[in-house]
Amino acid sequence: MPNLTNSTTSVQKVTHVPLKPPTPTTGWATVKSSFVRQLGLQTGEVTAVQQAFGTLATAAPNAITPDANFWALLQQFEGTPLASQLPVPSAFASIQTSDLTAFGNGLIGLRKQQVESLRTALAPQVGTSGANVSPGAQAANYGAALNSLNTGIAATKNLAQDTSTSPIGMLNLERLEMTPAGIERGGLLATIPLAPKERTAVVQEEWSVTSQEFTSIVTDALENYSQTGVTENTQLAQATGSQVSHSNQFNISASASGGCGFVSASVATQFGTQDQTSASATDSRKQAIQTTRNASSRVRQSHKMTISTTTTTGASESSTRMLENPSATDPMRIDYFSLMRKWYVALYRYGLRLTYDITVPEPAAAMREIYEQLASLQAQVGNPFLFNLKYQDISPASLPSLMDHYGTQLPAPPAPTGPLTPQGQVPGLDENPGWHFFTLSFNVPDGYYVTKLEVQAKVGSGAYTNYTYHVFGIEGTSYLDGSNTNNYNLDLTKLYGFMTNYTGSQSVTFFLQYSDIAWVGLVVTVEPTPAAMEQWQISVWNACYNAAQTAFYASQQVLNAQIQALQATITGVDTLTLRREENDEIMKCVLRWLLPNFEFMPQDVLNLFKSAGTNLTYGVGFTGNDVGPSSLPWNLMYQNEDRVNFINQAIDWNNVTYFLYSYFWDVPTSWEFIRQLQHPDSTRQAFLRAGSARVVLTVNPGWEQAWTYFVEYGSTNMPDPLPPHPYLTIAQQIADYDNANYPGIPPANPDGGGPIDDDTPQIGTTCDTTIPQSLSAAVVITVADSTGFVVGATAIIDTWESKVQETQTVTAVPDGTHITVQALASGHSPSGGQPFPIVQASAKGLLIGEWFEYTPSSGTDIAVTSNLATIA
C-alpha cells in the first residue's frame, strides 16, 4: 500500500548542541568591563596593586607584568566617575583575562591587609576606668572595608566563571513528518479452535444507530439609541451625645457688734447661694455622597433563538453462524486480530543556526511592579480607621492647624469677654460716724467664671482723724495724710483669693465708718470655665473625627477603584499580547545582562529629546507642523538607531527559546511574594514566578560573525582582518556549514536554491576524473550514475575539505553517466585516489532518519489456520 502523502503531518523541531571551544584569552570585552566596574576601585588602589606587582616581578621574573596601558585603563575607574566618562567596553578586548584575574587577586590581598589593620585598631583597649573603647568612626571604616573585600572576591569569582563558560552553540533546524502507510494485523483478540469434523455455533450481533438533528434558528435585530445611567450612593451617619452637670454651693455668715458712746449696734448677716447647671446635647449628622455616570451609545441589539430537535433510532440484528471443520483428520483454528494503523515517520534536517546562550535573573521583574502596586493598595484597604487626636492637643492656638489638617470648618472656642465694671457713690454719709453699707451687684455670663476681682475706691475722711471701710470683712484703715482724700486700688483675688472661680449672679457689699464722701467700683475679669472649654474640645474632636472618617471612606473608595483598574489591566489582555510582552521582557533582560554597560537610550540622545520639548513621561514628541529635526546634533540619534537596527536584525527575537527556572533561584526575601503571584493565563503565571531564565538566542543567517564580534568586543564595526578569536572562527564555520555539505555528514542546508528544487530528491553520485575550471561555458561531468538528477536542480560539487566546494545549476542530463552544469568556478580532482562527491540538493531537507510507528484502530481481522504444525 503506498503512503498517503496528502495526509502527511509535519512537526517543526530543533536540536540544540552546545559547543566547548578553547577558552579565549582576548575578547569578553563587556564581561571584563563589568568586572572592573564591580570592583568599586578607590583612589590609590590601582597604584598600590601595581607596586605589589613590581615587587613580585623582582622576586619572580616569570610573574605576570601588565603594561602601562593596562594600569592607565584601570585608574580611570577609581573613585566615582560618571558613566559617560568611563572607557568604552571595547577597550578591554585586547586585555588578557589572566592579567585581570591577577589584578583581582592582588586587590583582594590589599583589601585583606586593610581589614586586618582596621580590626587591630578596633581591638578592645582598657582605659583608666576599665571601660572598653571602640570609636564609631573606626567601626564604620571597618564595615566599609569588609564590604569592599567581599565585592572584590565576588567579582573575581564571577570573572573566572564567565570567561570559562562557552555561550556558543548550534541549533539544528529539523522537521518531523508522519505519513499514513496503510494498516497491518495487530494483537490477537480471540480464537476459536475446531477439532476434525467439529461443528460450533457462533452468534454474531450487529447494530446500527441513526441520529438526526433538526435545528431552527430565529434571529431578531434592533438598532436603537441606548443611554445608561449609573448612580452610586454612599451614606455616612453618626450620632454623638454628651451631658455635662455642674453644681456649686457657697455660704457665708458674718456678725458684727460695736458701740459709740451710748449707741451700740449689733448686725448679723448671712449670705448663701446655690447653683446647679445641667446641659445635655445630642449631635446627629448624616452625609451622603452621590456620583452619577451616564453613558450613551447607538447600539444594535440582536436576539438569537435556536431550537434543536434530535432524533436517535437504533436497530440491532443477531445472526448465528455454524462453523464446521471439513477435515476428518486435521484440526483448525479461527483467529480474530486487531488492525493497527501504520505510519511512515521521516526526520529531515534543513538548516543550521548559531546560538548564544545566557542565563538571566528575574525575567519578569518589570511585570511584577503592577503586582507590587496591587499588594500595596490591598494592604491599605485592609487597614482599619484610626483616629489619634487627643483632647489635650485641642486648644485655641492649635485650631488653625487642625482645620488645615482635617480640611473642615471647626467650631470656634468660647470668645473672651471684657471685664465687668460695676460702680457707684456711697449715699447718706454726711459725716455720720456710724456704719454705712453699699452693695454692687454683677452677673457672670454662663460658661464663664471669675479669675480676678479688683476694688477701686475713693474715700474722703472729712473732719475725722481716721476712717474705716470694709469689703466682706477685708479691712482697710487709713489716717489723715493732709489731703483729706485717699484712693484705693486693691486686687482682692491676688491678695486673698476673693471670689476665685465664682459664677452666676454675685454681689459685693462695702461698709464704711468715719468717712466723708466715698465712691466705689469693681473690675471683674472673667474667663471661660473648664467645663465650657471641655465641651468646646468635645465638639472640635467630634468634628475632626467626622471629617477624618469621611476622608478615610473616600480614600477607601479611591483605593478600591485603583485596585479594580489594576486587576482589569492584569486580566484584560489577550493571549497574543501576553506572549509579545514576554518576548520583549526577555529581549530587555538579555541586553541588560549580556551587555552590562549597554544603554537603551544614551544620555546624549535623551538630552536631544529633552531639548526638542518631548514629553518624556508619555513619549509624545514631534507632533507639530514642522517636517522634522534638521539640527546637526541629531546625528547622535541616527547612530543610536543603527545600533537598534543591528540588535533586532542579528537575532531572530520572534523565535527566541528560553527555559524558565523556579522562583527559588531569585532573592530569598521575595520567595513568598513570587510564589503567590497569580494570573488567569498559565503561561504568564509561570513567567511571573520564574526566578531566572536560560535564554538561547538564535542568530539570523549571515549575522554570525557580526553578532559574536559585537558581544565579545562591544562594537558593531568589525575590523579587517578579524582578530583570531575562537568564537569568531566558530561563527564563520557555522555560517559556512549552513551553506555547504560534507561527505558522509548530513548537510545542514541541503537546499541549493535551484529553480525547481522543491520537488527534487536528495541523491548523490561521485566523479573520479579531473575537471578543469570553466567560467564561460557549460561543463560536462562524468559521474558514476546520473539517475535522479533533474535539469534545473542544484548540484553541490566536491567536499568542504577540498576548499573548492561549489554549487552549480544542472543544465542537462545527457545519459546515465554524465551531467552538465552551467559553469565551474574552480577545478576539481580526486584526492588520494578517492572520487569526489556530487550531490543534488533538495529543498525538503536531508533525510537523517526514518521509521514506522503504529497506532491502534477499531478494525478487526480474521485468519483461518488449518496446519497447526506450523503454529507456535
N-to-C span: 28 Å
How many helices in DSSP terms? 16
What number is the mean pLDDT? 74
Number of domains: 6
**What is the 3D shape?**
elongated
How large is the share of residues in beta strands?
Answer: 35-45%
Number of strands: 24
Which secondary-structure class do the elements indicate?
alpha+beta
Description:
The protein has 872 residues and is an alpha+beta fold. It has 6 domains: 29-124 and 135-165, no CATH class; 202-258 and 266-324, no CATH class; 354-364 and 571-622 and 635-713, no CATH class; 369-413 and 533-569, no CATH class; 448-526; 751-843, Beta Barrel (Elongation Factor Tu (Ef-tu), domain 3), CATH 2.40.30. It has helices at residues 29-39, 45-59, 68-75, 97-121, 136-162, 369-381, 399-406, 492-496, 530-571, 575-594, 603-611, 635-650, 671-675, 682-688, 704-713, 726-738, and strands spanning 9-18, 125-126, 132-133, 168-194, 199-260, 263-324, 332-361, 423-425, 436-444, 448-460, 466-471, 474-479, 485-491, 504-513, 518-528, 657-661, 692-698, 763-767, 779-782, 794-797, 806-815, 818-821, 836-840, 846-865. The strands form 6 sheets. Strands 1, 4, 7, 16, 17 and 24 form a 6-stranded antiparallel β-sheet that branches. A 6-stranded antiparallel β-sheet has the order 18-23-20-21-22-19, with no helix packed on it. Strand 5 (199-260) and strand 6 (263-324) form a beta hairpin. Helix 2 packs across helix 4 (97-121) and helix 6 (369-381) packs antiparallel against helix 9 (530-571). The chain is elongated.
